[in-house]
Amino acid sequence: MARITTVEDVTVIATESLSKRFPRVTALDRLSVDVGPGVTGLVGANGAGKSTLIKILLGLSPATEGRAEVLGLDVATKGAAIRERVGYMPEHDCLPPDVSATEFVVHMARMSGLPPAAARERTADTLRHVGLYEERYRPIGGYSTGMKQRVKLAQALVHDPQLVFLDEPTNGLDPVGRDEMLGLIRRIYTDFGISVLVTSHLLGELERTCDHVVVVDGGKLLRSSSTTDFTQTTTTLAIEVTDTDEHPDGTRAVRDALHARGVTVDAGSGLPGAGHVLLLTAQGEETYDLVRDTVADLGLGLVRMEQRRHQIAEVFTTDTNTGADTGTDTDEQRKEAVRHGG
Ligand SMILES: Nc1ncnc2c1ncn2[C@@H]1O[C@H](COP(=O)(O)OP(=O)(O)OP(=O)(O)O)[C@@H](O)[C@H]1O
């Protein structure tokens, strides 16, 4: 089952000025992006166009204009060939309640063209990989959300695809379930060499799992970069200090002292956690030392100094001048992403 990826620079997904217009809304707006092998996160607030993009890439929904290729195959003419090579985990619950995970996944394997014995063998392997054991013989209707997500993941993997599209696989999971799912997703690539495109409205959870992150907003490309680049360009330190009799407004005292030492402190206005929290961009280890020394010199207590979790809101705040067309709906959804963020 293990597969070795020998060609590093292949383009797994390529879109060129891809648009999808519905009568009342433009779901994708001239999106041009290239995605290589590995685990890629597709991030955007609800309604940003993620599911629409996946359906076009699977050849299930025609684009209004532009073009796209998946594994070198044109989505407009080679949909069936793409679906043979690509696994798909849909966002919404789509599982029959009365059959067991084993029966369902064997059925999906047979639908993909595997002979009966191979379908059973691949099903057992795949269900073990996603962490379903004895439960796999019980009807799916009695499963928890986490178990159902695992069955959906298993059916996407059972025909040994080259690439999988996972639409919001952590939806509805508690923090432990979410971490387990993210670990499984990572291993799909590291253990089996299957590339992954995974969507989420939470940037924070994807940066731990993905090699590359693509951010969309209102159907437009906001940013596409490796996770490392992303982290480096958005490294924000959050600092909180105590007040003392000498410095009744400790926050202001630290801000002024840092300013005098040449460090510009971001007011953080509009971001969650602003107020008594100072936000500044860390330039490396020295910034941590400087903050610690500054707070100590003022005789204040350091309540916390931490690298802030990145949230979609920060990308939007940084990139509002990049030409992203932001409608009222998207603003609302962005706030929602912030509320659920990190
Ligand atoms: N079949 C459709 N007819 C009309 N509008 C649609 C259709 N499918 C999607 N849309 C609209 O297109 C926009 C993008 O939807 P899409 O489902 O792709 O977003 P998303 O980023 O996947 O968000 P979510 O995770 O909430 O589904 C939304 O405004 C949605 O209402």
From TrEMBL:
Keyword field: ATP-binding, Nucleotide-binding, Transport
| CDD domains in UniProt | ABC_DR_subfamily_A
Instruction: Note the superkingdom of the native organism.
Output: Bacteria
Region (Disordered): which ranges?
317-342
Q: Where in the numbering of this chain does the ABC transporter domain appear?
A: 13-243
Can you say what this protein is called? ABC transporter ATP-binding protein
Single GO term (MF): ATP hydrolysis activity
Composition bias (Low complexity) maps to 317-327
UniProt organism field: Streptomyces spinoverrucosus
InterPro entries registered for this protein in UniProt: AAA+_ATPase, ABC_transporter-like_ATP-bd, P-loop_NTPase
The UniProt regions of compositional bias labelled Basic and acidic residues, in chain numbering, are 331-342
